[in-house]
TrEMBL record:
Protein name in the entry: Glutamine synthetase
MF terms in GO: ATP binding; glutamine synthetase activity
Residue intervals passing through the bilayer: none
Entry similarity comment: Belongs to the glutamine synthetase family.
GO terms (BP aspect): glutamine biosynthetic process
GS catalytic domain segment(s): 114-367
Principal location listed in the UniProt entry: cytoplasm
Chain ranges of the GS beta-grasp domain: 27-107
Locations listed in the record: Cytoplasm
Length: 367
């Protein structure tokens, strides 16, 4: 049995006694932000004395950046700038979750705040009405780092029966998956679906279609909800692109892309033009498709090779895949297989837009 956290053994009945207490006209607002690792999420909660109706009703806040890998102790105050609001599935309406950008003491973006530069790029191409859908793979672990449901000493049966599998011998942790799905729906996250993945204890959820900057916002909040649901169950969700060495599948974040022109009649030519542009900047995209300059992509090998570019119809081993239905209908979208599971969706979508629609170099933030 996987090691679970001590907190998961606390009485949920006692907790519910307090959670059901009335709170009058007050509202709990939980601020969520990306920390200095570029992968971790942090949150803290405050009271507002009326329910916010829009993001403009949420005040800025601050936190100690020296405790989140974002500042030195001698000058550590960082600003939290609310950018989008969701319903809180843990404390329920009228309470809210608010995703925030982080600014430094001089009100410049923190090093891991890639949202601001992404937003500028999305604004520049808004007439293209670009849609994204991202397929987030993750692996469930015990708090000891061992995959949830795996034998304590040894390995489960080889890969084969687990992808979209059913049954107690094939699906490990489905309760967590279904609770996360419901939490996303309640919150207002644009979750599209979910399925078990190739490696046992590995799952996937999809977010989208989302237009422009919304893609990053909704995927980051979906990740936050996943970590919080797992916390309640006493397990850990890792986005490590290669959590287990050996002949076990890695984890990616395939990214589906569609512009207005691609969705219209004859859109296939626009898809093929975008693929041609991506082929010329393959190495630069690999560099920004994980938080470690492409090193995680090298480890992952989830589907496509990191060191060469390829494209094909219904070819899930290629860098870029055109789904068969899209090819037959001559319009729709394409799928980029390279982003790693721990990618920042802001850097991924910014890179794709810059290459496919702006013909610019996408490797650096223009903060």
């Amino acid at each position: 049995m996987a090691a679970v956290s001590p907190s998961s053994h606390l009485s949920k009945a006692v907790r519910q006694q307090y959670m059901s207490l009335p709170q009058g006209e007050t509202c709990q607002v939980t601020y969520v932000w990306i920390d200095g690792t570029g992968e971790g999420l942090r949150s803290k909660t405050r009271t507002l004395y009326s329910e916010p109706k829009s993001i403009e009703d949420i005040p800025e806040w601050n936190f100690d950046g020296s405790s989140t890998y974002q500042a030195e102790g001698s000058n550590s105050d960082m600003y939290l700038i609310p950018v989008c609001m969701f319903k809180d599935p843990f404390t329920l309406d009228p309470n809210k979750l608010v995703f925030c950008e982080v600014l430094k003491y001089n009100r410049l973006p923190a090093e891991t705040n890639h949202r601001l530069s992404c937003s500028k790029v999305m604004e520049a191409v808004k007439e293209h009405c670009i849609w994204f859908g991202m397929e987030q793979e993750y692996t469930l672990l015990g708090v000891d780092g061992h995959p949830f449901g795996w034998p304590t000493n040894g390995y489960p049966a080889p890969q084969g029966p687990y992808y979209c599998g059913v049954g107690a011998n094939n699906a490990y942790g489905r309760d967590i998956v279904e609770c996360h799905y419901k939490a996303c729906l309640y919150a207002g996250v644009k979750i599209y679906g979910t399925n078990a993945e190739v490696m046992p204890s590995q799952w996937e959820f999809q977010v989208g279609p989302c237009e422009g900057i919304e893609m990053g916002d909704h995927l980051w909040v979906a990740r936050y909800l996943l970590h919080r649901v797992c916390e309640d169950f006493g397990v850990v969700a890792t986005l490590d692109p290669k959590p287990m060495v050996g002949n076990w599948c890695g984890a990616g974040c395939h990214t589906n892309v569609s512009t207005k022109e691609m969705r219209e009649k004859g859109g296939l030519q626009h898809i093929e033009q975008a693929i041609q542009k991506l082929s010329k900047k393959h190495a630069k995209h690999i560099h920004v498709y994980d938080p470690h300059g492409g090193q995680d992509n090298i480890r992952c090998h989830a589907t496509s090779r990191f060191d060469s570019f390829s494209a094909g119809v219904a070819n899930h081993g290629a860098s870029i895949c055109i789904p068969r239905q899209v090819y037959q209908e001559k319009r729709g979208y394409f799928e980029d297989h390279h982003p790693a599971a721990n990618c920042d969706p802001y850097t991924v979508t910014r890179a794709i837009v810059a290459t496919c629609l702006l013909d610019t170099d996408e490797g650096e933030d223009s903060k």
